[in-house]
Amino acid sequence: MDASDRGSAPAMTPWEGAIIETTGSLVAYLNELPASLSGRQRCAVDTEADSLHSYKEKLCLIQFTCAGRHVIIDPLRVGDLTPLLDFLRDAEVWMHGADFDMSLFKRTFDFVPPTVLDTQTAARLVGFRQFGLAHLLQDVFQVTLSKQSQRADWGRRPLPPVMVEYALNDVRYILPLADRLLGQLADVSRLEWFHQSCAAAREQVLNRPAPDGEDAWRITGWGNLQPRGLAALRALWHWRNGEAERLDRPPFKVMNNEPLLEMAMAFQSGHEPFLPPRFPHPPRRRFFQALEAVEALPPEEWPKRLLKKRTSRHPEAERRFDQLKAHRDRLALEMNLDGSLIASRATLEEIAQNIEALPPLLPWQQGLLLPAVESLRGGDQSLRIPAGPVAPASVREGDGPASVL
Asked: Among 2, 22, 213, 395, whose Cα sits 20 to 30 Å from the Cα of 372?
């Protein structure tokens, strides 16, 4: 990254805080951005959706900043967003908590920018334990963000000024925060870890399978039901979602999952499920029709329980797991990291079960774990912390991330 792309923001322009509602305005904004001396534009992106207010979540807002010019792009009004996607194709794109935004881009445009860097990932890799954007901006810049519009309806138009300001603040500070975190990553020799982690996160979004529509009704707790109760749960889940679609509101605003499970359990036990009186006649009629259909369903058409195959760790695997976890935790303490960044519990269990084959790991994670794994493969009962980049003493002995700001 060219240092000339950093520093103080340029003077205010007519675009500052603008809401872009046409493709022509979008093209004009992008064309008026000053050229990057490094040859590659550097921008920050955030998104807002209406998952709390609509049946089908849709992209409602794109907050965008480049060269100090913060704007809101309205995808509900702009007819063709191809110019923006083309811009992002060649840019260095920063996001915070990028998984949601990348997933929304993929679902909406079948596109994810080739280079996405995440300030949340950077913060975790330098030791922050509270890595939400609001916490980071308070810690790093002593900036307090309002949470007033956090659960607002981003599909409403026109947007009131308070929501516009809230949305702009979600990108206004990302690039300055990125610069600060990049400096800290360099200080602890973890820039390569950061780039590997961001690239892997992008690949995960690109390769994530679509939700299984057939089994979407198997909500948390379904395993406590027998086939008759499962048939009721499936029918009631589809009834609830049908009502949500009719009303164009999220399913949880029609009924939470917990009452669905309670109703399915009651039906399984031979009792009539209780539907709260707040439901008017048409959805009540459809509710009881759904249950009548379950009553008429032959048992061979009830859903199967799909019991998971249980695997038990043998004593040697238990010992290896304990050794690996202790080793990981020592490394995490030494490096001022959350241990799950090095390897999750599930990953350690997988390694312990089959010490001869490592699960997919990032190169930096493998570099930290492989010496311990090789020691266990050789039957070595004592594990040493491998050589590698660690935080300087000023970080390890200070008050956490704030000591290196």
From this structure: 395
